[in-house]
Amino acid sequence: MSHPISPLAPPAQPDLPALAGVRLATGAAGIRYKDRTDVLLVELTPGTTVAGVFTKSLTRSAPVDWCKQSLAKGSARALVVNAGNANAFTGKAGEASVERTVKAAAKLLGCSTNEVYVASTGVIGEPMADDRLTAALPTLRSQINDDWAAAARAIMTTDTYPKAVTRTARIDGVEVRLQGIIKGSGMIQPDMATMLGFIFTDAAIAAPALQTLLARYTPRTFNSITVDSDTSTSDTVLLFATGKAGHAPVAEAGDSRLGSFRRALEAVMRDLALLVVKDGEGVERLVTIEVSGAASERTARRIGLAIANSPLVKTAIAAGDANWGRIVMAVGKAGEKADRDKLSISIGGVAVARNGARVEGYDEGPVASHMAGRDIRIAVDVGVGRGKATVWTGDLTHRYIDINGSYRS
Amino acid sequence: MSHPISPLAPPAQPDLPALAGVRLATGAAGIRYKDRTDVLLVELTPGTTVAGVFTKSLTRSAPVDWCKQSLAKGSARALVVNAGNANAFTGKAGEASVERTVKAAAKLLGCSTNEVYVASTGVIGEPMADDRLTAALPTLRSQINDDWAAAARAIMTTDTYPKAVTRTARIDGVEVRLQGIIKGSGMIQPDMATMLGFIFTDAAIAAPALQTLLARYTPRTFNSITVDSDTSTSDTVLLFATGKAGHAPVAEAGDSRLGSFRRALEAVMRDLALLVVKDGEGVERLVTIEVSGAASERTARRIGLAIANSPLVKTAIAAGDANWGRIVMAVGKAGEKADRDKLSISIGGVAVARNGARVEGYDEGPVASHMAGRDIRIAVDVGVGRGKATVWTGDLTHRYIDINGSYRS
Predict the structure, then answer these.
(1) What span, in angstroms and rounded, lies between the C-alpha atoms of B233 and B194?
(2) Residue of chain B minimizing CA distance to A321
């Protein structure tokens, strides 16, 4: 069953240039889907460093376990991704499947197995047909190319459009590029990273510094989005740096030469995360929730997520209803410090409530107009401190139920 | 907009006899609804003791604040309930509204204001038309009667059927009765009690003992149900004991004479809670989730709630899909101790997964038949300890979105 393209999809895909040190190929291995690509092989130049963040799920998948363990080495030569089967909750058979896959890829590329990263997305709990995956690898290697758009398509599951972001920065006066692809639509409340996201750069940055930067920006990007409050067993974001841009290598995350790179990295991460929300299952409106006045950034984010995950808030937004009482309810249930009698709420920039009660002479007209649009902005001040955070989500529509009644994830 | 009666509604309402020391009257005050009753006055005999549990929401309503404060006195003469307006997030005006209401009722009945309990349910954030409520009180008093079924109807909001439970127990060889009414359908993940529930008994039990018993059974009854993970600002359960049954008064919760009463009380609380789940907004299937092997009863309940609140689990159940991989996902995101590699799952009594992987030769046939029914049973053992708990929820259907896009709660 295929679903219509999200109304929030970007009007056009960005041009995705070749990136020095990164080559890719996609293929149709028939792991679950028919008549579409479902495998991606990325070949990385020797010397590529790597960082990763992963789901905190206690039922995480075998590929996640493999990548976490390999990160200690900090170097990467290949990434193998498949869509259709998550290889999660597959026990020892799942681990063996990962081992066969990384061995096949390592042999093909002449590298160590710990330099092969793997990610799988799709059904949970079914045995993985890794024989189809390994059988496809030699052909993929022989067809290696620079078609990034094809790569973004090959990793989709319930996604309705492929997702990619590209951006440049400067290090030591040398232009470097950051380019990422991501997939995700449902089972989205990343608890460390979201579904499968892969960011590549030709910058030369040591693995520990790369890891520091990826971890620093994850809370306010990937971990600040939610579609349905459900956390995937496969959440994986990997950041690879090939070092081919030509500047002198950078060893420390705090190096002043990384200023432009750091800003670009956070922007790429945020833009990738937003592409996921905009393709949230059934989502018809993008909802940006700004929480201020909280005890800390962390508690502000939790309050934001309580609002973002409330089915009552989300169904009201789907109906274009400025039902701000439900926002009050969600703040109340968040379990974080908030002062009911100082609570202020605005929707679309219009003050709705102040100091714990509806504003005098409240006129719902302009708020109702705002709610009729696709870009909903909610601001909440909880009146106890200076912590703030922004969280992004979508509305909850009938299409979410259609999609998830028919898709075996 | 009215909605069809839940397919899980009991085939018939129980006979609700008069209860010594309790009299009631309902009326149509037009607070929000037209052409239906929306106010309930309960008059309690002098000497009635009272216990209560309330929402832990930080944005709790003015009536909740009032009742919590009055409980210290432990005696009750009246209960005034209205449907249509929750009097929540209404600031000082909301408090003043409660004060006017309890003053009017106290004057009418010749009691202290602290003996008048109030509960309101409906829209959050709108000023309360308490003048209509207080104006209705003298007529209600003059029409006082024993029509419990009418009382159950007068407190409904999005409920599709009235909810009441009755049961007897024995104290010192004397038969006592416990009879309760409850309302609730959406915004149901009680964090102390659920929406509005009122239990009455003619037993003679001191207020502190009553409070101990109510608090003891709340976690495994009202706090073990969820419809949509959203916690109401108005959650209130009150337990009143009129002492009219004729046995010698009981002072201590642990008194051995209360054995039969304690069992009956827990059963009444559980049955009332289940009536709420069965009328959950849009619910078409009752889902019972038994979690075992957890570190404690509390963590077992949290894991059960994570499964029960997962939109992906709930939409799969709505589609009759035995999608057990999503149960694995929900256990993983619960944030409580669980051993992925010892996890076992059964559905409808059929083993699906054992020791972290699907059982050998798994046949989905009998599980699919079970999923086609209305009474879905999921059992999960998380393999780390001896804690267990049962949680009840419903599925997530299109009707939930219809209801909540059209109702201003």
Answers:
(1) 10
(2) B405
Report the C-alpha gap between A316 and B15 in whole angstroms: 38
SS3 B338: coil
The answer to whether A122 and A157 have CB atoms below 8 angstroms apart is yes
A359, A377 contact by CB (below 8 A): no
φ, ψ dihedrals at A226, nearest 5°: -150, 140
Residue B22: the pLDDT is 93
Both tokens of residue A29? 């291995």
Please tell me the distance from the alpha carbon of residue A91 to that of residue B340, in angstroms, as a whole number: 9
In chain B, residues under CATH classification 3.60.70.12 are: 22-278
Residue given tokens 């620079």 in the structure block: A146
CATH number for region A286-406? 3.10.20.340
How many residues are present in chain A?
Answer: 409
List, for residues B355-366, the tens digit of each pLDDT value. 988 898 999 999
Record the tokens describing residue A151, joined without a space.
């790569």
> CB neighbours of B37 closer than 8 A, spacing ≥ 6?
B26, B27, B28, B150, B153, B154
**Has the ipTM of the complex gone over 0.90?**
no
Contact present, B97 and B62 (Cβ < 8 Å): yes
Mean pLDDT for all residues in chain B = 90
Low-confidence ranges of chain A (pLDDT < 50): 1, 409
Chain A residue numbers touching B303 (CB-CB < 8 A): none
Span(s) in chain B for CATH 3.10.20.340: 286-406
B107: left (phi over 0), alpha (psi -120 to 50) or beta: alpha
**Residue A36 φ/ψ region, left for φ over 0, alpha for ψ in the -120 to 50 degree band, beta for the rest:** beta
Kind plus residue range of the DSSP H or E element containing B149: helix B148-154
A125 contacts B324? CB cut-off 8 A: yes
Catalytic pick from B121, B194, B218, B242? Answer: B194
Per-residue pLDDT, B1: 45
Question: B335: pLDDT confidence band, cut at 50, 70 and 90?
Answer: confident
Phi, psi torsion values for A288, nearest 5 degrees: -105, 120
Q: Is the dihedral of CA A226, A188, A323, A371 positive or negative?
A: positive
The answer to whether the beta carbons of residues B332 and A58 sit under 8 Å apart is yes
Q: Cα–Cα distance between B214 and B231 in angstroms, integer?
A: 19
Q: Who's near B360: CB < 8 A, 6+ residues apart?
A: none
CA-based nearest residue in chain A for residue B228:
A311
A59 CB near a chain B CB, below 8 Å? Answer: yes
Within an 8 Å CB–CB cutoff, is residue A409 touching chain B?
yes
Class of domain B22-278: alpha beta
Separation between Cα atoms, residue A79 and residue A379, nearest integer Å: 40
Contact B103, B113 (CB under 8 A): yes
Which residues in B lie closer than 8 A to residue A283 (C-beta atoms)? none
Helix axes B91-109, B62-70, angle to 10 degrees: 50
- Among residues A295, A220, A297, A210, the alpha carbon closest in space to that of A252 is found at A210
Distance from CA of A340 to the nearest CA of B (A): 5
* Angle subtended at Cα A394 by Cα A156 and Cα A228, rounded to the nearest 5 degrees: 70
Q: Which residue has the tokens 């750091």?
A: A262
Closest Cβ opposite residue B58 in set A88, A332, A357: A332
